[in-house]
Amino acid sequence: MEEKGLVHLSWPSEEEMERIKEKFEKIRGLPNCCGAIDTTHILMNLPMVDPANEVWFDKERKCSMILQGVVDADMRFLDVVTGWPGKLSNASVLRSSSLFELCNTGTALNVKKVRLCEGAEIGEYIVGDSGFPLLPWLLTPYKGKALLGLEREFNKRHYATRMVAKRALARLKDMWKIIEGVMWMPDRNKLPRIILVCCVLHNIVIDMEDDAQDEVPLAFDHDPGYRQQICDEADQTGSSLREKLSLYLAEKRPP
Cα angle at 93 between 91 and 99, to 5 degrees? Predict the structure, then answer.
């Protein structure tokens, strides 16, 4: 599967990305959106008498390995990162990934921009929840309770769009039971490969348009027992782009 199946899990071509952006915009009107990112924990039952296992003990007092995934509007995985201990934050896993490097250099998300209004444009980006840093290519929701109307409107549209990633991770775990529950003393060197193959199989089912995927519940909770992470990192350019997009969406009619 690793040798022959990875054709089903790869970063889109420029032509494919245009189709992805069209589908994302149809969800709640976010223009030039290329993906949604989220993380989930793969639980393990490990003997804590072995000091070597302490690294896998996360903040919720469980042993886990993280899976970070970027998905398209059809819930297909475009990029996955796994193998890191569950105690690491979403921001830490992101910054250690090749995706972070490729996006920062404009390789994965290029500088192709769309015009929002007079004097305002926005490049390609993905969306993620408050556990991720706000970056020029990763837009997160506004935080706090005393939000302006346009900020609340942005958050509503942003939430509906990023739910694609939560649904994808929930479907992944529900369909491939080996990673849904608590794995009994798995080989931590082999587990990332197992997770990767599950993501490849997930994509193959979607690519084949198998009727079986319609039977999978559209649940959102793929990480029960884990609290929402909050990342306070905010890039100034990312903040400016989010503000421009919020103004643009506030002036538009509801999609």
Answer: 95
